[in-house]
Amino acid sequence: MIGRLQDRVAIVTGAGQGIGAAIARRFVEQGAKVVIAEINPTTGAAMAETLRRKGYAAHFVQTDVADAASVERMVAETVQVFGAPQVLVNNAGIKVTDDPLHLSEEAWRRCFAVDLLGVWHCCRAVLPHMLAQGKGSIVNIASVHAFQIIPHAFPYPVAKHGLLGLTRALAVEYASQGVRVNAVAPGYILTQINLDEWSKLPDPDAAQQLAASRQPMNRIGTVDEVAWPTVFLASDEASFITGEMLVVDGGASVRFHE
User: Fold this and answer.
1) What's CA 226's distance to the chain center, in Å?
2) How far apart are the first and last CA of the chain?
């Protein structure tokens, strides 16, 4: 059986754990050759080794997306190991939140360096390869914060709003040259980051149950429920879709709160 991403070279940033790891797993299962571009050498190398032991084509490159030179080296190594990339998933990100007037300049810059500028670094590095092939798919992992404002989350939603703008601008810019650019906007997903946040509270289980009860489906999404839509957007099944944001939040963003 031929996979939906058969023999395609894909880069997934932040793929050492969580949503990125789930995307990498689903990509290799669909026939892709995947580069794990991860800043954490321990989780990144372990993820690539796990996939290789299962017979899949995976390669780890330690990458700091906030550093343009690091990204350029990662893409060069991708070309050397697997060939020119046809798919890029910009998943790496950090969540910086603080009171706007108490937020430090360093925290502000770090948020945008990773969550917005880091995405641009990766897009800029892979676009020449995609344009040379006359095809390519970029999928940016955004957030419901890209179109909604949740109190006390500043400046994270500012960066994610910018990411949606970047997605749309690049989609229009390169649509006629065979490159598609889309975004996936997850809502509440059961990731290690959320588990760590709940663990800091007096009753972590109660906090998780409360979060689930606030969702229309009465549960929190899984990482695979983000990975599969990403597979779809990266594949030829989405060949006439570009500049779009696929919201994966179990209906939370369309429900009216009285």
Assistant:
1) 9
2) 49
Residue 120, domain CATH:
3.40.50.720
Strand order, beta sheet including 136-141:
58-62, 33-38, 9-13, 87-90, 136-141, 179-186, 245-248
In a domain, 194, yes or no: no
For the chain, the maximum distance between any two Cα atoms, rounded to a whole number of angstroms, is 56
Contact predicate 184/233, CB 8 Å: yes
Measure CA 128 to chain center.
21
Q: For residues 81 and 59, is the Cβ–Cβ distance under 8 A?
A: yes
Task: State the residue range of the domain holding 174.
Answer: 9-188+222-251
**Catalytic residue, candidates 56, 156, 174, 188:** 156
Averaged pLDDT, groups of 10, the chain, 258 residues long: 93 97 98 98 98 98 98 98 98 93 95 97 98 98 93 94 98 98 96 84 91 93 98 98 97 82
Residue 3 lies in a domain: no
Query: Is 156 known to be catalytic?
Result: yes
- In this predicted structure, what is the pLDDT of residue 258? 61
The reply to whether 62 falls in a domain is yes
Q: How far apart are CA 223 and CA 121, in angstroms?
A: 25
